[in-house]
Design brief:
Layout: H1 3-9, H2 22-33, E1 40-44, H3 51-65, H4 69-75, H5 86-92, E2 99-103, E3 106-107, E4 112-113, H6 119-122, H7 124-130, E5 139-144, H8 151-162, E6 168-173, H9 182-185, E7 189-192, H10 198-208, H11 214-224, H12 228-237, H13 240-251, H14 260-268, H15 273-294, H16 302-320, H17 324-345
Helix pairs in contact: 2-4, 3-5, 11-12, 13-14, 13-15, 14-17, 15-16, 15-17, 16-17
């Protein structure tokens, strides 16, 4: 991951608004208006569904209104803040004194992200929470992601969660809440973000991509499955013609196997690792859908074998650096066999 790619991870702090999650925005505004905001929230949801953006929007709302937050919450329709908010502007560039971000860091020497959130960073909490709020109101801690904490770092965080100072809010982001320490989960109120709908995905992508193409998005919408960052990666790859071909070859009737070598060559070329991974994910999605469609028809489900063999052959290809083109050709042979067997089941 390059520095530029790392900067993209920080984009949620610069977002001007939050698309979707209307129910959760309303919940936060209700508890703020009633003066019943819990000191720690565990924000869960699918990968790349807007959890970090939601956390930053909460922070911007609190720090933009500061001592008048209850009144502002009673009048607000969502968590958006005025465009001229100085506090929001500071948060967007990472310079607000009352917001502390704990996350993995870019290691310039090793040119990669740190393996987890360093425990020394978590220990900065003591100084941050012990100081007076720079602008006289709230202090907010965002942990992105709490999943990335080693046991020592998680235990250091737990001490702060157990004895929080007044007007302090912890926003802990997690891809898998159930994997966290029970002691952390028990001290937080849970907030689950839904997977963005297709409509919301379009709205989000239009704001972050100047050349957003709805037709291109239609090709990858099912594959992205509500994962905004993955959708951006797929769209940036700019392989529209190949995507049409990949999907058409997966869905074609049994027996039609002409020109497979051309597609396999294109997908397995050196330097096209992302395209190769995209093709395999498309294949898995197709096999998954066919297995569901055939379930309950009686007899053995031929698509279960395809799934198992594909999984095994992909692991072997990665482990032993085997020919990617051969994996693709093997997959189409499996698909062709399963299509024939499915046709027999439906007779």
């Amino acid at each position: 991951m390059s520095v530029e790619e790392y900067d993209r991870i920080l984009q949620p702090r610069a977002a001007q608004s939050l698309v979707g999650a209307e129910d959760l925005q309303r919940l936060f505004l209700d508890v703020l208006g009633q003066g019943r905001l819990h000191h720690a929230w565990l924000i869960g949801g699918p990968d790349s569904c807007g959890k970090a953006t939601f956390a930053y929007q909460v922070a911007k709302f609190l720090l933009s209104h500061q001592l008048s937050v209850h009144e502002a919450a009673l009048q607000a329709q969502d968590l958006s803040v005025p465009a001229d908010s100085r506090s929001a502007a500071k948060i967007s560039v990472g310079s607000h004194p009352d917001l502390l971000l704990l996350s993995r860091r870019w290691d310039a020497e090793k040119k990669r992200m740190t393996a987890g959130i360093p425990v020394d960073d978590v220990r900065r909490l003591t100084q941050f929470l012990g100081s007076t709020a720079g602008e006289g109101g709230w202090r907010i801690v965002i942990v992105d992601k709490v999943d990335d904490m080693a046991p020592a770092a998680a235990n250091a965080l737990l001490k702060s969660l157990e004895e929080p100072p007044s007007n302090c809010l912890f926003l802990l982001i997690s891809d898998n809440i159930q994997r966290l320490l029970p002691t952390i989960r028990s001290r937080c109120r849970k907030a689950q973000l839904p997977r963005p709908s297709e409509h919301h995905m379009v709205e989000i992508l239009q704001t972050v991509q100047d050349d957003f193409d709805p037709a291109e998005f239609a090709l990858i919408e099912g594959l992205a499955n509500g994962r905004v960052r993955y959708a951006m990666d797929l769209l940036e790859a700019d392989h529209g013609d190949l995507r049409h071909d990949m999907q058409a070859r997966l869905e074609e009737p049994a027996g039609d196997r002409k020109n497979l070598h051309a597609l396999a060559d294109a997908v397995s070329l050196r330097g096209r690792d992302a395209l190769f991974e995209e093709f395999l994910e498309r294949a898995r999605l197709f096999v998954h859908d066919r297995a569901k469609a055939v379930a309950g028809q009686g007899g053995a489900n031929p698509w279960i074998e395809v799934w198992d063999v594909l999984d095994r052959q992909q692991r072997e290809t990665e482990t032993y650096n085997l020919d990617k083109k051969q994996l693709i050709l093997n997959l189409f042979a499996l698909l062709n066999k399963a299509k024939h067997e499915e046709a027999l089941l439906l007779v």
